Amino acid sequence: MNTRVTDTPSHPLTALGWNSSVAAAFDSVSHASEHLLVPGRVSAARRGGSVVNLPEEVPADHSPAVLKAARRDPTLAPCTGDWVAVRRSGDAWLVEAVLERSGTLVRQGIAKDSHDQVLAAGVDHVLICEAADQGPNMGRLERFLSLVRTGGATPVVAVTKAELAGDRLPEVVELVRSVSPGVDLHVVSAHTGEGLPELAERLRPGSTWVLLGTSGAGKSSLVNAIAGGDLMDTGEVRGDKRGRHTTTHRQLLLLPGGAIVLDIPGVRRIDVPGDTEGVDRTFSDVTDLAERCRFRDCAHESEPGCAVRAAVDEGELDLRRLERWNRLRREAERNRSRGDVRLRAERIRHWKNADRPGLRVLRTRRPAWRCRR
Ligand SMILES: Nc1nc2c(ncn2[C@@H]2O[C@H](COP(=O)(O)OP(=O)(O)OP(=O)(O)O)[C@@H](O)[C@H]2O)c(=O)[nH]1
Ligand SMILES: [Mg+2]
Ligand SMILES: [Zn+2]
């Protein structure tokens, strides 16, 4: 986090987002430890060490216990936004434990043996940025919304670069609204200042926000415009409207208004995690209709009394939205079973590698049993 953290007048940990649930998580870790621990928040995580705010910024190594846990499961390594318990060890600081997380943004590991990646932790709100001049891409928005909900944070949508849409702006906003029922929507321009005061008003002191969107969506420009300075580098988009991945690392920043923001590198595509509930909450308009189907297990295909199909026939529900709901649900189910397979494989690996003298005895005896047969 930049040095401005120490300039804040109120309680230093409150300025970093400290609240009663973080305090309770810290208490349970600190009571169980033989060391004198202090709480801090990770503003930037690296392999083997982190920058931790106590609230002044210090570099801290990860303790052997933290490293061991992260080797077994990389999602357990400290990540940006995590609350941690640290202790002094000689001249250095050591991260002894990662406190129980709330509000995470997790990138699902797609390959069979790849792990999930925690992009951010301790997140209250995710501002999903969609550039007004590029679509909008409804499927991507639904995907981002599902992902945010699964992680337990509240999604808010920003249609960025509003002035570039010209006459199309109302249509773009309507389309975005149609895929984000119940979600706060801000129409903003970092260049003209449109919508910035309203958005800044939402960024309450001590709340943690992550900006999520494709490269070039204008996330860093938005942070700078709200901060009234150049906190983040920004980059021109290319001829094909794609961004240049200007932001390459993740670091918490404190806005002058007191909110904590994390502007992450642009994300083009991200899988929904193995959680159909996050998907269903994103498609609440469709699930509300499904409640009224005659059969509880209606597949919304050709069943009689299907309220979802009736809404499609009457033009109240876009068939493409129904198809995208089905597709995302299937993806979530697939990812859940993939996750289960991975978890099982990891458990077996862990069990095989564990140092268990009893197992060694068993192994040495086995040939003798075979001889007897
Ligand atoms: N016209 C206009 N251009 C904007 C606006 N906001 C951002 N841009 C431009 O869009 C380009 C990309 O902006 P960035 O803020 O770097 O985008 P980003 O989302 O942070 O991109 P990555 O860091 O690559 O993920 C830059 O050239 C900005 O000047 C806006 O409101 N209006
Ligand atoms: Mg950026
Ligand atoms: Zn139905």
From TrEMBL:
<feature type="domain" description="EngC GTPase">
    <location>
        <begin position="121"/>
        <end position="268"/>
    </location>
</feature>
<feature type="binding site">
    <location>
        <position position="306"/>
    </location>
    <ligand>
        <name>Zn(2+)</name>
    </ligand>
</feature>
<keyword id="KW-0694">RNA-binding</keyword>
<keyword id="KW-0342">GTP-binding</keyword>
<dbReference type="InterPro" id="IPR027417">
    <property type="entry name" value="P-loop_NTPase"/>
</dbReference>
<feature type="binding site">
    <location>
        <position position="293"/>
    </location>
    <ligand>
        <name>Zn(2+)</name>
    </ligand>
</feature>
<dbReference type="InterPro" id="IPR004881">
    <property type="entry name" value="Ribosome_biogen_GTPase_RsgA"/>
</dbReference>
<feature type="binding site">
    <location>
        <position position="300"/>
    </location>
    <ligand>
        <name>Zn(2+)</name>
    </ligand>
</feature>
<feature type="binding site">
    <location>
        <begin position="213"/>
        <end position="221"/>
    </location>
    <ligand>
        <name>GTP</name>
    </ligand>
</feature>
<keyword id="KW-0479">Metal-binding</keyword>
<keyword id="KW-0378">Hydrolase</keyword>
<feature type="binding site">
    <location>
        <position position="298"/>
    </location>
    <ligand>
        <name>Zn(2+)</name>
    </ligand>
</feature>
<keyword id="KW-0699">rRNA-binding</keyword>
<dbReference type="InterPro" id="IPR010914">
    <property type="entry name" value="RsgA_GTPase_dom"/>
</dbReference>
<feature type="domain" description="CP-type G">
    <location>
        <begin position="112"/>
        <end position="270"/>
    </location>
</feature>
<comment type="function">
    <text>One of several proteins that assist in the late maturation steps of the functional core of the 30S ribosomal subunit. Helps release RbfA from mature subunits. May play a role in the assembly of ribosomal proteins into the subunit. Circularly permuted GTPase that catalyzes slow GTP hydrolysis, GTPase activity is stimulated by the 30S ribosomal subunit.</text>
</comment>
<keyword id="KW-0690">Ribosome biogenesis</keyword>
<dbReference type="InterPro" id="IPR030378">
    <property type="entry name" value="G_CP_dom"/>
</dbReference>
<comment type="similarity">
    <text>Belongs to the TRAFAC class YlqF/YawG GTPase family. RsgA subfamily.</text>
</comment>
<keyword id="KW-0547">Nucleotide-binding</keyword>
<dbReference type="Pfam" id="PF03193">
    <property type="entry name" value="RsgA_GTPase"/>
</dbReference>
<protein>
    <recommendedName>
        <fullName>Small ribosomal subunit biogenesis GTPase RsgA</fullName>
        <ecNumber>3.6.1.-</ecNumber>
    </recommendedName>
</protein>
<keyword id="KW-0963">Cytoplasm</keyword>
<keyword id="KW-0862">Zinc</keyword>
<comment type="subunit">
    <text>Monomer. Associates with 30S ribosomal subunit, binds 16S rRNA.</text>
</comment>
